[in-house]
Amino acid sequence: MRDLRKQKLWIVLSIVLGAAVAVGLVLVAFNEGLNVFFTPTEIAEGKVRPNQNIRIGGMVKTGSLVREGLEGTRIEFLTTDYNVDIPVVYDGVLPDLFREGQGVVAEGFVDEGGVFQARQIMAKHDENYMSAEVKAALDAAEQKKAEGVAP
Fold first, then answer.
1. pLDDT in tens, 69-80
2. What is the pTM of this model?
3. CA 94 to chain centre
4. Which of 2, 70, 134, 146 is deepest in the core (most CB within 10 A)?
5. Which domain holds residue 12?
6. Are both 39 and 29 inside the same structural domain?
């Protein structure tokens, strides 16, 4: 009778331990793949760790776009929320609708030098669309600027 209780206890403990390990692995995988959205001001305020996977959103600053390389596949530009400008570097082909003065969301990481290394660039898809996150961030930056609050 005692052996049967011990056996059941071991089975229950094994199931609980296995479930805890599975939940832990899922949380680690989720955290690794999570791309949190930040504005240029939040990045300048130090809310992002170097090499953390994030998305940055803002406007492509007019006059900041530079194309380099044999076919112009290395692109550098500034993304701004009208308070702070963050340099962005991207190697690849830009979306057709990407241009200066337009909204952009870039996925990647901020390196130790404060430059955003983009792995993917997403541009707005028509004249009336802007990501809700980018719109809210730009509105908040406008509000700070109107109140005279420095970033």
1. 766 678 999 999
2. 0.65
3. 18
4. 134
5. 1-34
6. no
